[in-house]
Write a structure and sequence with these properties.
about 110 residues, alpha/beta, D-Maltodextrin-Binding Protein, domain 2, 4-stranded mixed β-sheet
Length: about 110
């Protein structure tokens, strides 16, 4: 399973003050097994990450496999857990590649 975190930064900063929004990170997961067990599995990770980084981490369970790539393209997700098929599709559409540590692994 591969995890990607993409953080987007908006270069077009508006001069008008914006109301403060709660910072959060949204991580998508695929419907690989019983959805209730899957949420049980990932919820402790979201709570742990929220506590460690001080930003609310939320998990979004998708109903279809192709939605995960579309949500990355639209900028809705900050991260996702991909299976092998979905990673191959995301890699071809978004040119994503996993990075472990400071050097790429081939």
């Amino acid at each position: 399973m591969v995890f990607f975190l993409i953080l987007g930064f908006n270069d077009n900063i508006k001069a008008q003050p914006q109301p403060a929004k709660e910072k959060s990170i949204l991580i998508g997961i695929l419907p690989e097994r019983n959805i209730f067990k899957q949420m049980e599995r990932f919820e402790p990770l979201a709570q742990y990450l929220s506590k460690k980084i001080g930003i609310n981490v939320k998990i979004a369970l998708l109903s279809r496999y192709d939605n995960i790539v579309n949500n990355f393209i639209s900028g809705r997700f900050d991260g996702a857990f991909f299976g092998s098929f979905t990673y191959a599709y995301a890699h071809s559409r978004l040119n994503l590649a996993p990075k472990i540590g400071d050097t790429p692994h081939f």
